[in-house]
Amino acid sequence: MRVHVLQHVPFEGLGSIQSWLDARGAAISWTRFYDRPQLPELSDVDFVIALGGPMSVNDEAALPWLADEKRFIRQAIDAGKPVLGICLGAQLIASAFGARVYPNRQKEIGWLSVENVVSGIASLFQLPPFAKVFHWHGETFDLPPGAIRLASSAACDNQAFQLGQNVVGLQFHLETTPESADAIISHCRDELVPSEFVQSEVALRTVSPSSYAEVNRIMAALLDFLAVPKITDPKRTFGH
Asked: pTM of the predicted model, to two decimals?
Protein backbone atom coordinates (compact mmCIF):
# COMPACT_ATOMS: atom_id res chain seq x y z
CA MET A 1 0.00 0.00 0.00
CA ARG A 2 1.41 3.36 -1.10
CA VAL A 3 0.14 6.10 1.18
CA HIS A 4 0.66 9.77 0.44
CA VAL A 5 0.38 12.26 3.31
CA LEU A 6 -0.52 15.92 2.79
CA GLN A 7 1.04 17.80 5.71
CA HIS A 8 0.46 21.52 6.27
CA VAL A 9 2.53 22.35 9.37
CA PRO A 10 5.31 20.37 11.07
CA PHE A 11 3.44 20.15 14.39
CA GLU A 12 0.42 18.29 12.97
CA GLY A 13 1.57 14.83 11.94
CA LEU A 14 0.24 11.30 11.67
CA GLY A 15 0.00 10.56 15.39
CA SER A 16 -1.38 7.04 15.91
CA ILE A 17 -1.82 6.58 12.15
CA GLN A 18 1.93 6.02 11.92
CA SER A 19 1.77 2.76 13.89
CA TRP A 20 -1.18 1.51 11.79
CA LEU A 21 0.80 2.16 8.60
CA ASP A 22 3.99 0.62 10.00
CA ALA A 23 2.13 -2.55 11.01
CA ARG A 24 0.99 -2.98 7.41
CA GLY A 25 4.34 -2.26 5.81
CA ALA A 26 2.96 0.77 4.00
CA ALA A 27 5.24 2.85 1.80
CA ILE A 28 4.71 6.45 2.98
CA SER A 29 5.42 9.53 0.88
CA TRP A 30 4.83 13.14 1.83
CA THR A 31 3.95 16.53 0.47
CA ARG A 32 5.04 19.01 3.15
CA PHE A 33 3.47 22.22 1.95
CA TYR A 34 5.36 24.35 4.48
CA ASP A 35 8.63 23.16 2.93
CA ARG A 36 8.16 22.04 -0.69
CA PRO A 37 4.60 21.98 -2.11
CA GLN A 38 5.24 19.33 -4.75
CA LEU A 39 2.49 16.76 -5.35
CA PRO A 40 3.09 13.24 -6.68
CA GLU A 41 1.75 11.55 -9.76
CA LEU A 42 -1.65 10.13 -8.85
CA SER A 43 -0.68 6.80 -10.40
CA ASP A 44 2.00 6.43 -7.70
CA VAL A 45 -0.52 6.66 -4.84
CA ASP A 46 -3.01 4.14 -3.41
CA PHE A 47 -4.32 6.07 -0.38
CA VAL A 48 -4.30 9.80 0.46
CA ILE A 49 -4.34 11.25 3.99
CA ALA A 50 -4.81 15.02 4.34
CA LEU A 51 -3.83 16.28 7.80
CA GLY A 52 -4.84 19.35 9.79
CA GLY A 53 -3.38 22.84 9.99
CA PRO A 54 -4.17 26.32 11.31
CA MET A 55 -4.73 27.93 7.91
CA SER A 56 -8.07 28.21 6.13
CA VAL A 57 -8.96 26.53 2.85
CA ASN A 58 -9.99 30.03 1.77
CA ASP A 59 -6.40 31.37 2.02
CA GLU A 60 -5.48 30.67 -1.60
CA ALA A 61 -4.27 34.23 -2.23
CA ALA A 62 -1.66 33.88 0.51
CA LEU A 63 -1.07 30.13 0.03
CA PRO A 64 -1.51 29.39 -3.69
CA TRP A 65 -0.64 25.71 -3.22
CA LEU A 66 -4.08 25.24 -1.64
CA ALA A 67 -5.66 25.33 -5.10
CA ASP A 68 -3.31 22.59 -6.34
CA GLU A 69 -3.97 20.52 -3.22
CA LYS A 70 -7.74 20.71 -3.67
CA ARG A 71 -7.37 19.72 -7.31
CA PHE A 72 -5.19 16.72 -6.33
CA ILE A 73 -7.67 15.61 -3.66
CA ARG A 74 -10.57 15.83 -6.09
CA GLN A 75 -8.69 13.88 -8.73
CA ALA A 76 -7.80 11.17 -6.20
CA ILE A 77 -11.44 10.84 -5.14
CA ASP A 78 -12.72 10.83 -8.73
CA ALA A 79 -10.19 8.06 -9.45
CA GLY A 80 -11.73 5.93 -6.67
CA LYS A 81 -8.76 6.10 -4.29
CA PRO A 82 -9.36 6.04 -0.52
CA VAL A 83 -9.00 9.52 0.97
CA LEU A 84 -9.07 10.51 4.64
CA GLY A 85 -9.27 14.18 5.61
CA ILE A 86 -8.66 15.32 9.18
CA CYS A 87 -9.80 18.78 10.35
CA LEU A 88 -8.33 21.07 7.65
CA GLY A 89 -8.12 17.94 5.51
CA ALA A 90 -11.89 17.41 5.77
CA GLN A 91 -12.47 21.05 4.93
CA LEU A 92 -10.22 20.67 1.88
CA ILE A 93 -12.32 17.73 0.64
CA ALA A 94 -15.49 19.77 1.11
CA SER A 95 -14.01 22.78 -0.67
CA ALA A 96 -12.65 20.62 -3.50
CA PHE A 97 -16.24 19.66 -4.29
CA GLY A 98 -17.60 23.19 -4.12
CA ALA A 99 -18.94 23.17 -0.55
CA ARG A 100 -18.62 26.28 1.59
CA VAL A 101 -16.04 26.47 4.41
CA TYR A 102 -16.58 29.27 6.91
CA PRO A 103 -16.17 30.25 10.59
CA ASN A 104 -18.16 28.05 12.95
CA ARG A 105 -20.54 29.71 15.38
CA GLN A 106 -17.91 29.12 18.08
CA LYS A 107 -14.47 27.59 18.36
CA GLU A 108 -14.31 24.01 19.56
CA ILE A 109 -11.09 23.05 21.34
CA GLY A 110 -10.77 20.17 23.78
CA TRP A 111 -11.95 16.66 24.58
CA LEU A 112 -15.64 16.96 23.70
CA SER A 113 -18.33 14.53 22.60
CA VAL A 114 -19.60 13.79 19.11
CA GLU A 115 -22.72 11.79 18.29
CA ASN A 116 -23.10 9.16 15.58
CA VAL A 117 -26.08 10.19 13.44
CA VAL A 118 -26.16 7.19 11.03
CA SER A 119 -26.19 4.12 13.27
CA GLY A 120 -26.85 0.81 11.55
CA ILE A 121 -26.13 1.70 7.91
CA ALA A 122 -23.72 -1.04 6.86
CA SER A 123 -22.16 0.82 3.93
CA LEU A 124 -21.14 3.75 6.15
CA PHE A 125 -18.35 3.93 8.70
CA GLN A 126 -19.80 3.49 12.16
CA LEU A 127 -18.58 5.69 14.98
CA PRO A 128 -19.67 4.77 18.52
CA PRO A 129 -23.07 6.24 19.49
CA PHE A 130 -21.18 8.86 21.49
CA ALA A 131 -17.43 9.40 21.60
CA LYS A 132 -15.26 11.91 23.43
CA VAL A 133 -12.70 13.08 20.88
CA PHE A 134 -10.02 15.75 20.51
CA HIS A 135 -11.08 18.95 18.70
CA TRP A 136 -9.14 22.02 17.60
CA HIS A 137 -11.01 24.07 15.02
CA GLY A 138 -12.65 27.43 14.44
CA GLU A 139 -14.13 26.76 11.00
CA THR A 140 -16.73 24.36 9.71
CA PHE A 141 -18.04 23.25 6.31
CA ASP A 142 -21.22 22.50 4.43
CA LEU A 143 -21.46 18.89 3.31
CA PRO A 144 -20.12 18.36 -0.21
CA PRO A 145 -22.71 17.18 -2.77
CA GLY A 146 -23.43 13.48 -2.33
CA ALA A 147 -21.87 13.26 1.14
CA ILE A 148 -23.61 11.71 4.15
CA ARG A 149 -23.15 13.26 7.58
CA LEU A 150 -21.75 10.73 10.05
CA ALA A 151 -21.51 12.76 13.25
CA SER A 152 -22.56 15.98 14.94
CA SER A 153 -21.90 17.80 18.21
CA ALA A 154 -23.44 20.53 20.35
CA ALA A 155 -20.93 23.04 18.98
CA CYS A 156 -20.75 21.99 15.33
CA ASP A 157 -23.38 20.37 13.10
CA ASN A 158 -21.06 18.72 10.58
CA GLN A 159 -18.42 16.75 12.47
CA ALA A 160 -17.81 13.93 10.00
CA PHE A 161 -18.99 12.81 6.57
CA GLN A 162 -18.59 9.99 4.12
CA LEU A 163 -18.44 10.51 0.37
CA GLY A 164 -19.04 7.35 -1.62
CA GLN A 165 -17.37 4.23 -0.22
CA ASN A 166 -13.77 5.41 -0.02
CA VAL A 167 -13.76 8.92 1.43
CA VAL A 168 -14.21 10.13 5.01
CA GLY A 169 -13.73 13.63 6.41
CA LEU A 170 -13.36 14.21 10.15
CA GLN A 171 -13.54 17.64 11.76
CA PHE A 172 -11.92 16.15 14.90
CA HIS A 173 -8.72 14.27 15.61
CA LEU A 174 -8.82 10.52 16.24
CA GLU A 175 -5.07 10.22 15.65
CA THR A 176 -4.22 12.23 18.77
CA THR A 177 -1.48 10.94 21.05
CA PRO A 178 -0.03 12.67 24.14
CA GLU A 179 2.87 13.82 21.94
CA SER A 180 0.70 15.21 19.15
CA ALA A 181 -1.59 16.94 21.65
CA ASP A 182 1.42 18.57 23.29
CA ALA A 183 2.68 19.77 19.91
CA ILE A 184 -0.54 21.54 18.93
CA ILE A 185 -1.03 23.00 22.41
CA SER A 186 2.53 24.32 22.41
CA HIS A 187 2.14 25.99 19.01
CA CYS A 188 -1.47 27.20 19.27
CA ARG A 189 -2.10 27.94 22.95
CA ASP A 190 -2.97 31.56 22.10
CA GLU A 191 -6.30 30.18 20.84
CA LEU A 192 -7.23 28.90 24.30
CA VAL A 193 -9.54 31.81 25.11
CA PRO A 194 -12.09 30.51 27.63
CA SER A 195 -15.57 29.90 26.21
CA GLU A 196 -18.30 27.27 26.33
CA PHE A 197 -16.50 24.87 23.99
CA VAL A 198 -12.85 25.79 24.61
CA GLN A 199 -11.13 23.92 27.42
CA SER A 200 -8.15 25.16 29.41
CA GLU A 201 -4.63 23.94 28.82
CA VAL A 202 -4.78 22.12 32.14
CA ALA A 203 -7.92 20.27 31.06
CA LEU A 204 -6.37 19.41 27.69
CA ARG A 205 -3.32 17.93 29.38
CA THR A 206 -5.05 16.03 32.19
CA VAL A 207 -6.56 13.31 30.05
CA SER A 208 -6.44 9.64 30.94
CA PRO A 209 -4.46 7.19 28.79
CA SER A 210 -7.74 5.39 28.10
CA SER A 211 -9.07 8.45 26.25
CA TYR A 212 -6.14 8.36 23.84
CA ALA A 213 -6.45 4.58 23.47
CA GLU A 214 -10.13 4.85 22.59
CA VAL A 215 -9.77 7.51 19.88
CA ASN A 216 -6.78 5.65 18.43
CA ARG A 217 -8.86 2.45 18.36
CA ILE A 218 -11.59 4.25 16.40
CA MET A 219 -8.98 5.66 14.02
CA ALA A 220 -7.57 2.18 13.38
CA ALA A 221 -11.10 0.90 12.64
CA LEU A 222 -11.64 3.80 10.22
CA LEU A 223 -8.37 3.11 8.43
CA ASP A 224 -9.30 -0.57 8.18
CA PHE A 225 -12.65 0.47 6.68
CA LEU A 226 -11.05 2.73 4.08
CA ALA A 227 -8.27 0.29 3.19
CA VAL A 228 -10.59 -2.61 2.33
CA PRO A 229 -11.00 -2.81 -1.47
CA LYS A 230 -14.55 -1.98 -2.52
CA ILE A 231 -16.42 -2.23 -5.77
CA THR A 232 -16.48 1.33 -7.06
CA ASP A 233 -17.05 3.06 -10.35
CA PRO A 234 -13.81 4.98 -11.08
CA LYS A 235 -15.75 7.21 -13.46
CA ARG A 236 -18.18 8.32 -10.75
CA THR A 237 -17.84 11.98 -9.89
CA PHE A 238 -19.37 14.06 -7.14
CA GLY A 239 -20.52 17.62 -7.24
CA HIS A 240 -20.33 19.75 -10.35
From this structure: 0.94
